[in-house]
Amino acid sequence: MKFEIVPNVYWIGKIDWELRRFHGEEYSTHRGSSYNSYLVGDEKIALIDTVWMPFAKEFVANLAKEIDLNKIDYVIANHAEMDHSGALPELMRHIPDKPVYCTANAVKSLKGHYHQNWNFQVVKTGEKLSLGKKELVFVEAMMLHWPDSMMTYLTDDAILFSNDAFGQHIASEHMYNDLVVQSELFEEATKYYANILTPFSLLVTKKINEVIALNLPVNAICPSHGVMWRDNPLQIAEQYLKWAADYQENQITLIYDTMWNGTRMLAENIARGIKKKDDKVTVKLCNIARSDINDVVTEIFKSKAILVGSPTINKGILNATAALLEMITGLKFKSKKAAAFGCFGWSGESIKILTDHLTKAGFEVVSDGFKAMWQPDDEALAQACEFGMDFAGKT
Question: What pTM was computed for the model?
């Protein structure tokens, strides 16, 4: 499929309607995704990124229908991760001597992935590649979200090929931000930032401000996944700056797992106490064992505070809760408060384990937590409600 963005600039990627898991099994993609590749024509022709390896032969075959592959002068690899570079081995098999422009770190990554010594041309921020009347300007974007990442800016047409930044996992026949359902677009963009870019928020702020300081016009932002931003394209950059600034809404999220519903009962009564104390705060409950972990992480991203609950089992915690805690430790959320809760039978270690994990993950733990022995009775549920009121008062 070939789609014209502006004259002589084409989207030539792959829409993956069936994709439901990404990054192995780590990321849920309820709405599919796309792998965006771009063909830029002038006196010289440049190909910017490719697609994921399962679609490599299809991609190269389709590309060959649109252009004699030997007429591609330059290959731009904005990022070496396999969802962007996966078709490079198949492509370079046809045009082995064509130069591949990328960062120094990308050379290491690409060699590590494919064990090929292509004609690598290392570029740095501010360096340019002439296509004739137009130029490609390279902007390194280290750790957004890999060490090798970069963006490429096309002069005259004022298009920023932003790679993973500003993307979303959406499969759509509508290629632009103004043509898709806005609530879905921003839901997926928020989830993308929360689950992938949160650990790099300081770098996000620095890089966006660096790009803004270049004072370049931007008519469109073309990321590597999802739709392209043509209607007020900088709105997503402005949103990224907000998300990068220790983002939170007036929301408290309770995440729990439960064996015989005791911890669930505590969660519901803690939530009741929170609402009793503050009827304006949004309260959400998530059974982590029955919820999509990436969707829960997105709720945590939006929250000013969280409560995490698990009963004690084998002097530990339930595995779905443990997996969540491991994930949020790596995401390095900032300026969020937390506490733990749960039921127990005879030992009761879960509260301390949860509290220690939350502290390690960077949350401000504002309470020693709440635990109830065996199945909570009316008195324990009333105490859980009081605990929720107290917690709300500290957030």
Answer: 0.94
